[in-house]
DNA sequence: AGCACGCCGACT
DNA sequence: GTCGGCGTGCTC
């Protein structure tokens, strides 16, 4: 048997696997994730490596393969565990081992950032000049370059990175001169602490009855060794964060560490601040804007036990704590918890798996739990903890407005009469308003009003979007072309963008309420580094009366002075063409409604819609999650969608359309025999976006009750792709559920 | 990263 | 000829 071993993940040139023979006496001990000592290089110096795969076929001539020296039992277990986790990700979600390793260990790259090596002269300038003359005479050009560079700079010396890049100095030269005591090399480890210093322990902590009950139940069960995940279902504004804080307090007091997952850090900085205030420097944050080096620093700090709480997006799951006790996943229903790249893992399942590996607990929290999570809670796979009431104040009153009726009555504006009236009243009362457009910013296709021709991207087969700079852009591949003034098909002048973005709403508001101060939040206005925070802070400081925005304004913010939320077109997300559209609509409406009336004054919500009878809108208006859930789970059962079953979408892509179609025809013949194994198969069919980035795409959908059936199918497809020449040019992508 | 190999100018 | 130094490529 042979083992694939990764030698040193910190070195880019060694970022590949090496195959070693497993001696018979070690066969039981060598497993994926285990740390081993291996002879490496000509000198056979013993290095530490990690086993990332085991197989029986040598990939290079067998005589070149050396034996594994020994298995190290000790060492940093956390890293081994991460590698085991990578193997699990690969198996569960489909990817290469390399991709899986890269998601789990954002380590490599820029290790030199962690160690700064500074080179200084160890002798006087005069002496240095002597050496310089000597080396010049000896034609030791590299040493001359190095000395000249050092003489030019002051006693602060030069960084090795600078020397290597600007002066083409190699490590050997530096080492040689160091040996001769001409220069000194000083290494210092540096890492930045992203935590802004805030005084800990100031927050007043009074749990209300429901919160106390939930926290106590968690603590009792946790201490009793119960490790079934908990689902904290609490309506908007019920104080889930406070519960998390207490739970973490309980677990960290036992010397364990905690990971707090949040969907997107920029959108939840208020939450993060609360953790700082409570736990101070024990907390670290993983920022999406952080460089790889900075992230690596945070992982190091976690591994060394310098911090005990890590807050961050889904990648924070892979923090190598040595004694992990608790994983908290806030806003569990968020789409951001699913990775967009292979391995396309979902943080929910991965968190459960990690917790199992470490003996830790998992707490999911949401005001609108995903159908999956609630389904599991119903099946008693999760323990349900409830916070049925707001911590302060009551839930807002919700009105649904039928836009068809408005139109019949001659109201053509984007605001219904109800909404207009309420806005007027809030402005007078100096209270704040949020207007939510259920759609991303300026986007809109460009069509000819005469012939109906729609402009499309030549590479991607999807409609182009008009941008404010006058260009037309493809969102998938970035293709750009100038705006057209005449229809390329019929020559008509009546061609223009279909505009219904936040910018239009903002203009309409300004026209109708000239006295109001308006802020807009969408992709355009948040482009800057801290765009989100700036706008949110300004609105929070009541520098504006009305905030207009898309999805991003409704997520988890706390503005006590907002008493009116207007949802301008609730149906916009209803026909997105995937089985989660209704769920997403309900979620957005509920979350949006949850922004109103969080302070002393009661709040009101207006939902404008063309389909008030749709169950997701009706349930959101009634603010009744269970009502929605019952309807939705019935729909999923009838249609056979997750969570009732498991689903796998396989995308086959190729630049060569013929080969792609040939492979699909082959699949159509082969696949039916898989159906014996209780796997339901549709396709292959052309993907929604058939051509993207010059790649043609076909998709196959597989459904099965047991998840393992699908992973088995995934493996079969992978082998097929590797071994069958028909699949030479074809790439596979897997997407579960 | 560390190590060896091959190349090149300088020195005895 | 030989020696010291440099750059490159490989490591299962």
UniProtKB/TrEMBL annotation:
Top EC class of this enzyme: isomerase
CDD domains associated with the record: DEXHc_priA (cd17929), SF2_C_priA (cd18804)
Co-factor binding comment: Binds 2 zinc ions per subunit.
Gene3D superfamilies: P-loop containing nucleotide triphosphate hydrolases, PriA, 3(prime) DNA-binding domain
Matches recorded under Pfam families: DEAD, Helicase_C, PriA_3primeBD, PriA_C, Zn_ribbon_PriA
Function: Initiates the restart of stalled replication forks, which reloads the replicative helicase on sites other than the origin of replication. Recognizes and binds to abandoned replication forks and remodels them to uncover a helicase loading site. Promotes assembly of the primosome at these replication forks.
Protein name stated in the entry: Replication restart protein PriA
């Amino acid at each position: 048997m042979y083992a694939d071993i990764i030698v040193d993940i910190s070195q880019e040139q060694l970022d590949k696997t090496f195959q070693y023979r497993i001696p018979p006496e070690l066969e039981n001990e060598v497993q994926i994730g285990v740390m081993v000592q291996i002879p490496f290089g000509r000198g056979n110096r013993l290095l530490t490596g990690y086993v990332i795969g085991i197989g029986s076929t040598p990939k290079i001539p067998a005589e070149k393969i050396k034996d594994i020296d020994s298995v190290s039992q000790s060492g940093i277990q956390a890293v081994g565990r991460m590698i085991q986790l990578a193997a699990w990700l690969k198996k569960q979600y489909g990817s290469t081992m390399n991709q899986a390793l890269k998601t789990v260990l954002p380590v490599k790259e820029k290790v030199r950032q962690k160690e700064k090596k500074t080179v200084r002269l160890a002798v006087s300038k005069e002496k240095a000049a002597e050496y310089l003359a000597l080396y010049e005479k000896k034609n030791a050009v590299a040493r001359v370059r190095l000395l000249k560079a050092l003489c030019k700079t002051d006693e602060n010396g030069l960084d090795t990175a600078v020397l290597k890049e600007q002066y083409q100095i190699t490590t050997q030269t530096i080492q040689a001169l160091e040996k001769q005591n001409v220069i000194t090399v000083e290494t210092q480890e540096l890492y930045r602490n992203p935590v802004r210093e805030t005084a800990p322990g100031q927050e007043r902590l009074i749990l209300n009855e429901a919160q106390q009950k939930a926290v106590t139940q968690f603590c009792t069960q946790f201490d009793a060794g119960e490790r079934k995940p908990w689902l904290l279902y609490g309506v908007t504004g019920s104080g889930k964060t406070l519960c998390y804080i207490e739970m973490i307090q309980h677990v960290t007091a036992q010397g364990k560490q905690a990971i707090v997952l949040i969907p997107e850090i920029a959108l939840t900085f208020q939450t993060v601040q609360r953790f700082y205030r409570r736990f101070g420097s024990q907390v670290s944050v993983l920022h999406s804007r952080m460089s790889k080096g900075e992230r690596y620093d945070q992982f190091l700090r976690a591994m060394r036990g310098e911090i005990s709480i890590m807050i961050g997006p889904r990648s924070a799951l892979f923090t190598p704590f040595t004694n992990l006790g608790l994983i908290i996943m806030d806003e569990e229903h968020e789409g951001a918890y699913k990775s967009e790249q292979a391995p396309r893992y979902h943080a929910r399942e991965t968190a459960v798996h990690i917790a199992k590996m470490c003996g830790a607990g998992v707490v999911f929290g949401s005001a609108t739990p995903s159908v999956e999570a609630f389904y599991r809670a119903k099946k008693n796979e999760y323990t349900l903890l409830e916070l049925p009431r707001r911590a302060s104040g009551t839930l807002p009153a919700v009105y649904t407005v039928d836009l068809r009726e408005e139109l019949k009555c001659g109201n053509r504006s984007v605001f219904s009469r109800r909404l207009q009236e309420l806005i007027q009243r809030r402005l007078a009362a100096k209270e704040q308003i949020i207007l939510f457009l259920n759609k991303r910013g300026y986007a809109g296709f460009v069509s000819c009003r005469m012939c109906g021709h729609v402009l499309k991207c030549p590479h991607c087969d999807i409609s182009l979007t008009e941008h404010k700079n006058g260009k037309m852009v493809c969102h998938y591949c970035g293709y750009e072309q100038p705006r057209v003034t005449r229809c390329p098909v019929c020559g008509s002048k009546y061609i223009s963008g279909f505009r219904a973005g936040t910018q239009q709403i903002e203009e309409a508001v300004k026209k109708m309420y000239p006295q109001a101060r308006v802020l807009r939040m969408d992709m355009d206005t948040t482009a800057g580094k801290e765009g989100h925070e700036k706008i949110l802070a300004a609105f929070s400081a009541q520098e504006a009366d009305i905030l207009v925005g898309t999805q991003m304004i409704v997520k988890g913010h706390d503005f006590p002075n907002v008493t009116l939320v207007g949802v301008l077109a609730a149906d916009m997300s209803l026909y997105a063409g995937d089985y989660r559209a209704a769920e997403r609509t309900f979620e957005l409406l509920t979350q949006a409604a949850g922004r109103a009336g969080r302070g002393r004054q009661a709040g009101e919500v207006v939902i404008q819609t063309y389909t008030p009878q749709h169950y997701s809108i009706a349930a959101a208006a009634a603010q009744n999650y269970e009502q929605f859930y019952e309807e939705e789970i019935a729909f999923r059962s009838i249609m056979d969608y997750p969570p009732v079953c498991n689903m796998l979408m396989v995308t086959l892509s190729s630049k060569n359309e013929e080969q792609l179609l040939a492979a699909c025809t082959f699949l159509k013949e082969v696949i039916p025999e898989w159906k014996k194994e209780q796997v339901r198969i549709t396709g292959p069919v052309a993907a929604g976006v058939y051509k993207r980035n010059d790649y043609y795409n076909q998709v196959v959908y597989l459904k099965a009750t047991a998840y393992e059936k699908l992973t088995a199918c995934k493996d079969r497809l992978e082998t097929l792709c590797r071994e069958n020449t028909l699949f030479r040019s074809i790439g596979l992508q897997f997407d579960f559920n």
